[in-house]
């Protein structure tokens, strides 16, 4: 960060501590821009008392987060209803803008400035839209389920549908070990080492965005994620953390969760799809995780969803998963269970890696596909229907393509990943009913 911007932040510290709001959203925006790591974001949120300690910690970190940190911070303020604070800083740094300037800046952030860099598809339903980066999910992005829609879905079938009507729709737990493990670079030339380092940083930025955005999705859908985040631990600590978290829910008489969602994010070079890895790259057996989940009495008879996202951190993949399936529907590698458990992952269908391909794009196909479908369709479709829709997006994803002259960019549709269900239950249907809370019956 430039010296003058450091001085501005120091001079305005008291004002910012007294006036900033939506600090978590500001930090999430900075994670998306690659200014903060997810670990730093999590650390900020643990400081007390909130929000003053959160703001102080953020302001102490920003000067050390690179030349773009100040302008990214201003942009985050503009996009989180902290425009007065943004203008206050601009007054002190000499770049005070007009309202029109601010609106233009916002538009330039969401769109590429030059038309030749836009990769817009003809069909608005095509996914992803390569003309702009994915944004963090906001509460207003979630299509809400109305009482009429709820009644239509349930009706006389209520006994065949999981009851998802409490304010606390569920508990969300994130366990992440997506460390970018570098290969031995001693024999590589400087150019290759620099390329490997650049790709490693891209992996970190993309995985941080994935984790922030999927957590934000379920938060906006009514899930509690407090004390539900574990990062970069060995397998035994992962299992103990999960046991402790679920045991505390069992012991708490005020717990009223309708469901459980756990997201495992892990990655290493030469990983196998749909497997969980710890911080050292050792496999964490999925069967061990499921046994821990089954032992939690609070979630007996309630839906328990486990998402497993495994990043293969190779820049180019030499081969696909062992099935190399050519079918276009969801792959089901199991028989139905009676434990109300659903385990969902994905297999790669492209040699380009897990990240969304496109200029200035962010995140991975699997996670961003889930978010895209869930925020738009969870209000009316069952969990399995949602997965089928995600699968359709992944099998017909819009990707950049160069013409024969190698200059003009066009787009094409091609498979990038495929949904895999390794555990599912057919006894009841799972609907999330976002935004719907059943009113108490008056006596």
From TrEMBL:
Segments forming domain CARD: 1-92
Gene3D superfamilies found in the cross-reference section: 3.40.50.1460, Death Domain, Fas
Residue intervals of the Caspase family p20 domain: 168-309
PANTHER family: CASPASE RECRUITMENT DOMAIN-CONTAINING PROTEIN 18 (PTHR47901), CASPASE-1 (PTHR47901:SF3)
GO MF term set: cysteine-type endopeptidase activity
Gene Ontology cellular-component annotations: AIM2 inflammasome complex; IPAF inflammasome complex; NLRP3 inflammasome complex
Protein's name according to its UniProt entry: CARD domain-containing protein
Organism listed in the record: Mytilus galloprovincialis
Transmembrane segments: none
Family note: Belongs to the peptidase C14A family.
Biased composition (Polar residues): 96-107
């Amino acid at each position: 960060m430039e010296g003058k911007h450091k001085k501005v932040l120091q001079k305005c510290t008291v004002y910012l501590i007294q006036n900033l709001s939506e600090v978590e959203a500001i930090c999430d925006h900075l994670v998306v821009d690659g200014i903060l790591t997810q670990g730093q974001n999590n650390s900020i949120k643990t400081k007390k008392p909130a929000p003053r300690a959160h703001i102080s910690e953020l302001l102490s970190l920003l000067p050390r987060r690179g030349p773009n940190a100040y302008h990214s911070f201003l942009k985050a303020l503009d996009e989180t209803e902290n425009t007065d604070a943004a203008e206050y800083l601009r007054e002190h740094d000499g770049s005070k803008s007009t309202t029109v300037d601010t609106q233009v800046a916002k538009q330039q952030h969401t769109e590429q400035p030059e038309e030749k860099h836009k990769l817009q598809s003809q069909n608005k339903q095509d996914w992803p839209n390569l003309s702009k980066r994915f944004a963090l999910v906001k509460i207003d992005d979630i299509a809400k389920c109305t009482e009429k829609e709820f009644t239509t879905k349930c009706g006389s079938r209520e006994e065949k549908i999981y009851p998802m009507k409490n304010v606390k729709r569920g508990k969300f737990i994130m366990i992440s070990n997506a460390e970018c493990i570098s290969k031995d670079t001693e024999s590589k030339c400087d150019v290759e080492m620099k390329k490997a380092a650049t790709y490693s940083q891209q992996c970190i930025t993309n995985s941080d965005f994935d984790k922030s955005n999927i957590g934000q999705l379920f938060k906006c859908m009514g899930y509690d994620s407090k004390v539900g985040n574990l990062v970069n631990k060995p397998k035994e600590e992962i299992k103990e953390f999960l046991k402790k978290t679920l045991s505390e829910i069992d012991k708490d008489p005020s717990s009223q969760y309708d469901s459980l969602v756990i997201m495992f994010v892990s990655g290493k070079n030469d990983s196998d799809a749909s497997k969980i890895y710890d911080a050292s790259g050792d496999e964490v057996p999925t069967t061990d995780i499921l046994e821990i989940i089954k032992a939690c009495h609070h979630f007996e008879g309630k839906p328990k969803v486990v998402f497993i996202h495994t990043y293969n951190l190779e820049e180019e993949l030499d081969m696909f998963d062992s099935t190399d399936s050519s079918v276009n529907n969801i792959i089901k590698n199991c028989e139905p269970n009676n434990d109300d458990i659903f385990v969902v992952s994905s297999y790669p269908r492209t040699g380009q890696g897990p990240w969304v391909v496109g200029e200035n794009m962010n995140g991975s196909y699997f996670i961003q596909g889930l978010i895209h479908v869930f925020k738009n369709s969870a209000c009316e479709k069952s969990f399995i229907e949602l997965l089928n829709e995600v699968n359709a997006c992944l099998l017909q994803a819009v990707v950049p393509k160069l013409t024969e002259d190698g200059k003009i960019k066009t787009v094409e549709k091609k498979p990038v990943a495929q949904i895999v269900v390794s555990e599912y239950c057919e006894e009841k249907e799972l609907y999330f009913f976002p935004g719907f809370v059943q009113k108490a019956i008056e006596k």
